[in-house]
Amino acid sequence: MSTISVVVTTYNRAHLLPRAIKSIQGAGCDLEIIVVDDASSDATHEICATLSGIRYLRLSTNHGLAHARNVGIAASSSDFIAFLDDDDLRLPGSLDRQLQLLIDHPDTAFCYGQALIGDAERQLPTGEIYPSHCPTGDIFWDLLKNNFIPMPSVLARKSKLLEHGCFNDNLTLIEDWDMWLRLSEFCLVVAVEEPVAIHRKATAASEQMSSNSAAICRQSLRVQQLALSRVRAQSGTRAQRRRVRQELLNRAYEILMTEATNSIHEGDNISARMKVREAFRFRPIRTLVSGRLPWLLIAPR
């Protein structure tokens, strides 16, 4: 039995798989690599047939990332599980370093680390790193403000994933944040404060699920509300709950207004109007004070 199982979820990006698999093979010494094909219609099956050292599972119907990851968890044979999407990369030796931390801290549920941001075209590092700091221990209230855990950086104990219900397949976006929140409600977390993965940057043209910032913001608010309704958050003060809610609303507003400004500079008034209207839903008074909403409502369509 391998020490670590790495679940690779993929859908219609066969051309990216070989590089992702190769990066995993250099990240640890004793690995089981499970590729879960979420009913791709491209050459994924043919590409996987040429890749050595993997288990290939093809789903007959596309059910999304959460379901595909849960299939990989169920099929895994290891006590520790990592996750990688087909367009992300693992850095050399990173899984072995994280495994040692989890072994040294048996009371923790998962280990995460920093990620280098890669450009959408070639996955080359842009110079951006997130998060700039990695909180550890009881991170629940910090994590409730904002998801600072890069998905490709996590190595988790399988027992904890199973104990807390794995990924919520009713969520089509931000299902990873929901999972880490549910784990951090009850468990401690450890981190490697150095880059362990390359996370492909989403752009409007990259056709990633995370490219739709408005949908991401809406789903983030939903995931946070789910966490706020559970016992751990309810045991906090009303002021604590209000503060984390306001911080996420402000963050969503800033993201959307920044993108709206960029769209205006690019001459894309349609996209700018859409982003400002979404920002208005989160922060109506701030949007009105900004002076952009009236302009966008009367701007030619």
Q: Residue-averaged pLDDT, rounded?
A: 90
Radius of gyration: 20 Å
Number of helical regions: 13
CA-to-CA gap between the ends? 60 Å
Q: How many individual domains?
A: 2
Report strand %: 15-25%
The CATH homologous superfamily name of the largest domain equals: Spore Coat Polysaccharide Biosynthesis Protein SpsA, Chain A
Q: Using the coordinates above, name the CATH class of the largest domain.
A: Alpha Beta
Give the beta-strand count: 9
Architecture of the largest domain, CATH level 2?
Alpha-Beta Complex
CATH topology of the largest domain: Spore Coat Polysaccharide Biosynthesis Protein SpsA, Chain A
Overview of the molecule:
The chain has helices at 17-25, 44-49, 65-75, 94-104, 140-145, 158-163, 175-184, 213-228, 231-234, 238-265, 269-282, 284-290, 292-298; strands spanning 4-10, 31-37, 54-58, 80-85, 89-90, 108-118, 125-130, 155-157, 188-200. It is built from 13 helices and nine strands. Strands 1, 2, 3, 4, 5, 6, 7, 8 and 9 form a nine-stranded mixed β-sheet that branches. Helix 8 (213-228) runs antiparallel to helix 10 (238-265). The chain folds into two domains: 4-201, Spore Coat Polysaccharide Biosynthesis Protein SpsA, Chain A (Alpha-Beta Complex); 211-298, Serine Threonine Protein Phosphatase 5, Tetratricopeptide repeat, CATH 1.25.40. Helices cover 45% and strands 20% of the residues. It is of the alpha/beta class and 301 residues long.
